[in-house]
Amino acid sequence: MASEDVKASESAVTTIVNLAEEAKLAREGVKAPSHAIISICKSLVAGGVAGGVSRTAVAPLERLKILLQVQNPHNIKYNGTIQGLKYIWRTEGFRGLFKGNGTNCARIVPNSAVKFFSYEQASKGILYLYQQQTGNEDAQLTPLLRLGAGACAGIIAMSATYPMDLVRGRLTVQNDKSPYQYRGMFHALSTVLRQEGPRALYKGWLPSVIGVVPYVGLNFAVYESLKDWLVKARPFGLVEDSELSVTTRLACGAAAGTIGQTVAYPLDVIRRRMQMVGWKGAGSVVTGDGRSKAPLEYNGMIDTFRKTVRHEGFGALYKGLVPNSVKVVPSIAIAFVTYEMVKDILGVEIRISD
Q1: d(CA 171, CA 106)
Q2: In Å, how far are 62, 208, 286, 317 from 69, measured between CA atoms?
Q3: What is the four-CA torsion angle of 75, 77, 81, 87, rounded to 10 degrees?
Q4: Of 116, 118, 154, which Cα lies nearest the Cα of 342?
Q5: Which run of H or E residues covers position 244?
Q6: Residue 14's pLDDT is what?
């Protein structure tokens, strides 16, 4: 989802973070090693809990979204949110609604932990540089700078866990009648690696990197900007004693998630379709080419866009948008609120304005 300069950005962020941490610790008179280790552990725990709780809460909608994105247009089984959920319940039972959720949680917990932690650290580093450049120690992050910090966090987290996302997508799509059954996350990883090679584990990585910028970046930027505006403007009596209520935080997270997912959604459809390419014998599961029931082979991101629009129309880029919209609001909102509540419980003091 973002650029070819990921490695350089990681190195730069690491250097910046170290400088910012040293400066802050020096001002506070705290010994760096113990403070840093405790702060890092608490941040990772808060992010992991937030990711796991939010994804489990909306697992049925997440599975339906992926099924709608990749289903064969010649064999329509899922036709809308309500009908699709009923069909899964009728044909696969209660467990079918949560198929792939175990792998999703195994992926999303470290993904969310790294993402939230990376965002806070990148924000500190970027703020430090911004204050040095402007000569104003009281300067705060602008929405554009927050977007950059969010994008960096998303790229790092997504890249670290992408192979798990690929097999999670395949585990989610397969059913009892699929021609080949993956028995679990590790079996799927080893099978893809053996049958399709190491590069197959990163199919669809490019649209994922590109999508990080609008999706994760806007999520963080809009959420943090809304919070700051509410604290400063205090409209409609929503803020008391400079603190936002859980309900207000939920609304901020919902707005951030809606904007991010709407902008990036076509890239998510392309990513899922690319992930299914090479899955032998899965023609009854994945999309067809508009003329036959054979699975369609895509040769890269642009080719996937072109063939999807040509054979199924522009609307195909938004297949599954309704269940995704229904799930993304509570999912993102719950993730942000849970993260901040766990931080409060653990006593994590890592606000970027400190």
Answers
A1: 13
A2: 11, 15, 9, 8
A3: 180
A4: 116
A5: strand 243-244
A6: 37
Distance CA 187, CA 275 (A): 17
Distance CA 181, CA 280 (A): 11
Mean pLDDT, residues 10-19 taken together: 36
Distance separating alpha carbons of residues 210 and 97, to the nearest angstrom: 30
Interatomic CA distance for residues 32 and 49, integer angstroms: 26
Task: Give, in order, the Cα–Cα distances in Å from 260 to each of 5, 206, 223, 337.
Answer: 23, 18, 11, 17
Which residue in this structure is represented by tokens 């009854």?
284
Taking the C-alpha atoms of residue 264 and residue 269, their distance in angstroms, rounded to an integer, is 9
pLDDT digits (tens, 9 = 90+) for 136-183: 888 888 877 887 887 788 788 888 889 999 999 988 888 776 666 788
Query: Using CA atoms, how far apart are residues 170 and 273, in angstroms rounded to an integer?
Result: 10
Distance CA 133, CA 127 (A): 10
Amino acid at 261: Q
pTM: 0.72
Query: What span, in angstroms and rounded, lies between the C-alpha atoms of 252 and 244?
Result: 10
- Residue 336 reports pLDDT greater than 60: yes
Task: Spell out the residues 6+ positions from residue 312 whose beta carbon is closer than 8 angstroms to its own.
Answer: 73, 287, 290
Which pLDDT band, with edges at 50, 70 and 90, does 334 fall under? confident
Q: Is 288 left (phi over 0), alpha (psi -120 to 50) or beta?
A: beta
Per residue in 265-291, pLDDT (tens digit) is 999 999 999 998 877 655 555 654 444
Q: What is the DSSP secondary structure assignment for residue 135, as one 8-state letter?
A: T
| Closest listed residue to residue 278, CA positions, set 157, 185, 172, 193 | 193
